[in-house]
Amino acid sequence: MKQEKNMVSVLFMLFSILFCVCLIAANVLETKQISVFNISLTGGLIVFPVSYIINDCVCEVWGYQKARLLIWTGFLMNFFFVTMGAICDAIPGAPYWTNDAGFHAIFGLAPRIAAASFIAFLSGSFVNAYVMSRMKLRDRGRHFSARAIWSTVFGESIDSIIFFPLALGGVVPWAELPKLMLWQVVLKTVYEIIALPLTIRVVGYLKQHEGEDTYDEGISYNVWKIFNLKNNG
Questions:
Q1: How confident is the model at residue 6 (pLDDT cuts 50, 70, 90)?
Q2: Is the model's pLDDT at 4 over the cut of 80?
Q3: pLDDT tens-digit profile of 68-82?
Q4: What average pLDDT does range 3-18 have in this prediction?
Q5: Residues sharing a CB contact under 8 Å with residue 134, sequence separation 6 or more, in sequence order
Q6: How confident is the model over 122-174, as pLDDT tens digits?
Q7: pTM for the whole thing?
Q8: pLDDT at 231
Q9: Which of 25, 88, 144, 231 lies at 20 to 30 Å from 130 by C-alpha?
Q10: Taking CA 120 as the corner, what is the angle to CA 169 and CA 8, rounded to the nearest 5 degrees?
């Protein structure tokens, strides 16, 4: 029985794969600057908020402890991808290769930006999962929409507060950073709200299919207990 509690379902595995793909895709798409309603943003905005939606679904259905495993898995897979890209970028191109500049623009992530991205992702994702978990306990499972939105607001705020000063401080004028950070949080939260009807349906299906609706009673929120998946509630 103890062994079963430390196993994950096929659907959780599929959500984990999608989570990792979203993070890796966001890294690649971040290299393009886009304009939405005359607001300058990065292409990562298209896919990165999906990772927060997946985080919400996993935390709501399987609980914080499975969300913790999901976050660390996503981090490690993303780190592996970025590291392999950096190694390949550092290796001299073949004599006939003429696209060094284009490849470097995508995979030659500056160490400062890479470090800021990793720290911001971990911090924002864990705050998102923690807020989801605590609000569910407080509300006894009611008001899913409210906790999905508020967890995104808190998680994305922490992500932006960490990422922009660490990655772009001194590069982008300091006076411009608060506006960039605010727009990121607002637009990603709007993204969450637009996707909310679909998220609610997905969560409902998962709870019915998995027969799970976890309440994180008496668990440890220690982010380092990666493989502790047993729920004490």
A1: low
A2: no
A3: 999 999 999 999 999
A4: 83
A5: none
A6: 999 999 999 999 999 999 999 999 999 999 999 999 998 998 888 877 777 88
A7: 0.89
A8: 62
A9: 25
A10: 165
Question: In the 3-class helix/strand/coil scheme, how is the chain assigned residue by residue?
Answer: CHHHHCCCCHHHHHHHHHHHHHHHHHHHHCCCEEEECCEEEEHHHHCHHHHHHHHHHHHHHHCHHHHHHHHHHHHHHHHHHHHHHHHHHHCCCCCCCCCHHHHHHHHCCCHHHHHHHHHHHHHHHHHHHHHHHHHHHHHCCCCHHHHHHHHHHHHHHHHHHHHHHHHHECCECCCCHHHHHHHHHHHHHHHHHHHHHHHHHHHHHHHHHHCCCCCCCCCCCCCCCCCCCCCCC
**Residue 73: what are its φ and ψ, rounded to 5°?**
-65, -45
Question: Which residue type occupies 193?
Answer: I
Report the C-alpha gap between 70 and 15 in whole angstroms. 9
